[in-house]
Amino acid sequence: MKTVHHTLIQDTPGDQLQLVSLHFGEPGRGPKVAIQASLHADEVPGMLVAHHLRQRLLDLEAQGHLLGEVVLVPMANPLGLRQWGLRGFQGRFDMNSGENFNRRYADLCAPVVAAVRDKVGPDAQANVALVRQALQEAVQALQPANALEHLRQTLLGLAIDADAVLDLHCDGVAVMHLYTTPATWPQAEVLARCIGARVALLAEHSGGEPFDEACSQVWVDIAEALGAEVPLPPACMAATIELRGEMDVRHELAREDAEGILRFLRARGVLQADDKPLPALLCEPTPLAGSIPMAAPHGGMVVARCEVGSPVKQGEPLIDVIDPLSGQVSTLCAPVDGLFFAHDCKRFAYKGMALGKVAGREAQRSGALLSV
Ligand SMILES: [Zn+2]
């Protein structure tokens, strides 16, 4: 394993932050998988999974089981990790700009298409290699103006030429679920099996340019821009994995999740295969546009009436919001048939706050599909 320290641009004198990446295997030998933890710095389960992954990968590397390359960023957001205030931990938004740390990743389609248009040919694998190189060059050509932009560029540089990218997050209170793109579902299905995902949410452009789509959807967009006569497969599968809820920071879960990711690495040929069959798929993919959020109609205490992971029917009561002054009780009911898969972990809501989500089968929403 090689450790690389990436020093970020200083926003203020003396303010030197580093991103650390751990590199297993040899670059260029076998498939590459990039894994990063806790880009939303307050979402801790990913860092614990990365901790267990590091130990297992060190052992597997020593045993000669590593056939490809793994880049592991065990703590993806040194900016957000400092965001303590009055005993509260933030970590989701940059304090200066207010921007979500998992938004505004560069869309590299245009510069890559310009770079490869005259070089691509009938050989799909040769085209993949050309595009990969152009993607990396396009990332390096970005000109970050501050630490936040430099963090985004550095993370993108570590992952943009990978065959698979796993971005480890968590929700408030939730079952295991993931977000990915429709074009890579056949690849992501393997991941969903390996980690035991209960919901898989698919969207091409969910709005806001999250990290995973910058790595994966860009291949689809480049292929479309180059035209049907140029063979170019979606050569990067990227998924945002929601490792249940933010309180689910436990060794037994993290070990299980690390083993699930190792199973995926075996299936992708990054690790020597074993003879174990893939686990069963626990869910059919559903459109992200069919994941329906429920908002608080007024402020008040929040009382969940249904466990996450429950299949629900439209109209079934899920969450009570109780105004402590008036005594008014409003019950949020399932907006569609589907799986009640996540709710916020705060127990007091302001009017309009998104409190929970039900994954339905039909796309019903449009525009920006991700939460703020
Ligand atoms: Zn997150």
From TrEMBL:
Keyword Metal-binding in annotation: yes
Reported cofactor(s): Zn(2+)
Keyword Zinc: yes
Succinylglutamate desuccinylase/Aspartoacylase catalytic domain sequence ranges: 30-267
Keywords from the UniProt entry: Hydrolase, Metal-binding, Zinc
Transmembrane segments: none
Domain of life: Bacteria
Pfam families reported for this sequence: AstE_AspA_cat
PANTHER family, alphabetized: BLL3975 PROTEIN
Protein name as annotated: Succinylglutamate desuccinylase/aspartoacylase family protein
Organism: Ideonella paludis
